[in-house]
Design goal:
single chain; 307 residues; mainly beta; Immunoglobulin-like; signal
């Protein structure tokens, strides 16, 4: 009998605790009949860098202190993600709208710094590029800083604007390279709308590959082209040693007009030129060891000082 009473008491305590937590959930609501116009959002919720994933989590819109819309998270199986489908109500355009997040796991409300002016019939976000309701705000950077390959040695990599070129040794198979990416913090990289996991993929680089980098807050989607080139072995190199009154020189002949040529000493790029009329010449070189990289070929050349 005592055990039964103890069990009943424990259950009552648990129910009271649960009721207390539930009772603190904000009672946000809006009378839709009071308003003429709407704008909508397809968004995700993020608090302190963690994306929320409970149907009890919610976001609400406010004009001043008046609630103008509220939505709980909904699981979308096709994306394996949770989204908030938020409808905001108003009677006028350009009305400032602010937002709040309720994090059910911590039973706390977070204010969002980002606001929106009301625009009739406007929609923000979609299932691929959702609107970010985040506290604090997430990064808008969508950079691609490095591209490499597992178990494959790269000769060189160059980034020019949104174009990345990686040079590999002759004979390397390009049809299934396991690619390792370095992108902006929190950003994700895609081919089309298929997310690519760094170091666990097999990508065919026979032709240039188009990637998309999506910023952490999903507001920026930046296009990147990655081209992989193999050494051709068709580069011809000449050198002239330095003398006391004149620096040395390196000359190379290559058939790929407009191809970039880099001259490196140690880890420092001294000069970058392009093939013009089938050749490039680097003049006034001091005594030392240089590396020339062009079209996937790399050549180490020593300039001596003749006395």
């Amino acid at each position: 009998m005592k055990k039964m009473k103890k069990y009943i008491y424990s259950m009552l305590v648990l129910l009271l605790v649960a009721a207390n937590v539930h009772g603190q959930s904000p009672n946000w609501s809006v009378n839709e009949n009071n308003f003429q116009y709407t704008m909508t959002f397809v968004g995700f919720l993020n608090v302190d860098g963690t994306t929320l994933t409970s149907v009890n989590d919610k976001v609400a819109a406010f004009a001043g202190n008046e609630c103008r819309g509220v939505a709980n998270l909904t699981y979308v199986a096709s994306q394996n993600k949770y989204f908030a489908y938020l409808t905001v109500f108003s009677n006028q355009n350009n009305e400032p709208i602010s937002f709040k997040i309720y994090n059910s796991a911590k039973n706390e409300i977070k204010n969002i710094d980002k606001t929106k002016n009301f625009t009739t019939n406007e929609n923000y976000g979609n299932l691929f590029q959702a609107y970010s309701f985040a506290s604090p705000a997430l990064s808008t950077e969508a950079g691609l800083f490095n591209v490499g390959f597992k178990n494959v040695q790269s000769i060189d990599m160059a980034i020019d604007g949104n174009a990345v070129t990686v040079y590999l040794w002759p004979g390397q198979d390009l049809t299934a390279l396991n690619t390792v990416f370095q992108v902006s913090p929190g950003a994700e990289i895609y081919i089309g709308t298929v997310k690519q996991e760094s170091g666990t993929n097999a990508i065919n680089y026979t032709n240039p590959v188009q990637f998309q980098v999506l910023s952490a807050d999903q507001s920026v989607l930046k296009q990147w082209t990655v081209t992989v080139k193999k050494g051709s072995g068709n580069v011809v190199y000449y050198k002239k040693d330095a003398v006391c009154y004149e620096g040395g020189a390196i000359k190379l002949l290559y058939s790929q007009e407009g191809e970039a040529v880099r001259l490196i000493t140690g880890t420092l790029t001294l000069s970058t030129q392009t093939i013009t009329n089938g050749q490039v010449v680097f003049n006034n070189l001091n005594e030392g060891t240089y590396k020339v990289i062009v079209g996937g070929d790399v050549k180490e050349i020593v300039i001596n000082l003749k006395k």
